[in-house]
Amino acid sequence: LDTLSRRCFQGDTDRGQRQLCRVLSSASKPKWRLLFFGTDHFAVESLKLLTSCRGTSEGIVETLEVVTLAGDVPVKRFAQENHLPLHSWPPDDVNGRFDVGVVVSFGCLLPERLISKFPYGILNVHPSLLPRWRGPAPIFHTILHGDSVTGVSIIQIRPHRFDVGPILNQQFYQVPENCTADELGGTLATMGAHLLINTLMSLSERMENQREQGQTGATFAPKIKMSMSWIVWEEQTCDQIDRLYRAVGSRIPLRTMWMGRTIKLLDFAGKCHVSLSDQRRNPIPGSVSFQKESNTLAVCCKDGWVGFRSVLLNKRLTAADFYNGYLHQTRQKNTPCETAEGQFFSKKGGIEVHQMRKNSKL
């Protein structure tokens, strides 16, 4: 691609962008020399489609090379299996060799000195409707916050900050009911790959009509941390626990405290209807009831009961195993600690919360 267009982009002015778009529009079928930056399975979907577009008369990719991070990451494995040239981060051999870059789930800020070496800039495939959910974990926060609509955005990378560049292309997606983060991620990865190809095929038009992101509706999606997996029975509703499980449960088991020990709650069974035999009993958040018919442990939260079919306490136990081996044994004892033995506690407060409740009943 010609020298004029390179100079136009590097000038980084509105006039230069308009000149560049006119140059691009003169080519009926662009053939991109492309450098791809990525790491995870989400990124592999875009790299896979780009690879299939390489070197054919109908394809839009002339050459394709890959930058990834150290370690045995999915993008590196795919590149090796498909004989794509690999670069370590940061790449040091890009001058005049590439027309455009593509970043998908890379996790590193690209400096201006690198971006300026690509005459047509660097595109980013981001799994949200920017400016909503800027940051490293948009899919998890989409599920966690109960968004009904999400999508994929293709933006131009800007230096110094993540996910703030102008939008070139967007596609909306209705989030299915009870969808998990893994399921949503798979769908958006495929959608993002095809939207990327669509954008590259009409890049001149997309750049001509790019729009800057506004601040209205901007939200941040921080990285998922283990601390998020602790359930706060007093504060979280059935729906909130459901969304938390669908957002992080496949990677970080939900956690609670029982008798001073950490229990991991597995195989979420959803909202439960619990009929207590003792009608005078007013269950408090964290109370546990074994439901023999469904073989679940039902736990009282802020506005109802949620169930789990198994737990991890030293080893994996079914709900029946945990009840028979632990809860049932302790409930046979008529002791002042009976409440604690039949109750899960939130980590924040732990023993102190239990002691305060116990004292209030004396």
UniProtKB/TrEMBL annotation:
Query: Where would you say this protein principally sits, based on its record?
Result: mitochondrion
The record's EC number reads 2.1.2.9
Q: What are the Formyl transferase N-terminal domain coordinates in residue numbering?
A: 99-199
Pfam families, per this entry?
Formyl_trans_C, Formyl_trans_N
InterPro entries in the record, alphabetically?
A: Fmt, Formyl_trans_C, Formyl_transf_N, Formyl_transf_N_sf, Met-tRNA-FMT_N
Annotated Gene Ontology cellular component terms: mitochondrion
Kindly state which keywords UniProt assigns to this record, in alphabetical order: Mitochondrion, Protein biosynthesis, Transferase, Transit peptide
Its signal peptide is: none
UniProt KW Kinase keyword: no
Indicate where this protein resides in the cell. Answer: Mitochondrion
Residue ranges of domain Formyl transferase C-terminal in the record? 223-326
Entry keyword Cytoplasm: no
The record's catalysed reaction(s) read: L-methionyl-tRNA(fMet) + (6R)-10-formyltetrahydrofolate = N-formyl-L-methionyl-tRNA(fMet) + (6S)-5,6,7,8-tetrahydrofolate + H(+)
Which GO-annotated molecular functions does the record name?
methionyl-tRNA formyltransferase activity
List, alphabetically, the PANTHER family matched.
Answer: METHIONYL-TRNA FORMYLTRANSFERASE, METHIONYL-TRNA FORMYLTRANSFERASE, MITOCHONDRIAL
Q: Which family does it belong to?
A: Belongs to the Fmt family.
Its job = Methionyl-tRNA formyltransferase that formylates methionyl-tRNA in mitochondria and is crucial for translation initiation.
Name the UniProt record assigns to this protein: Methionyl-tRNA formyltransferase, mitochondrial
Q: What is the scientific name of the source organism?
A: Astatotilapia calliptera
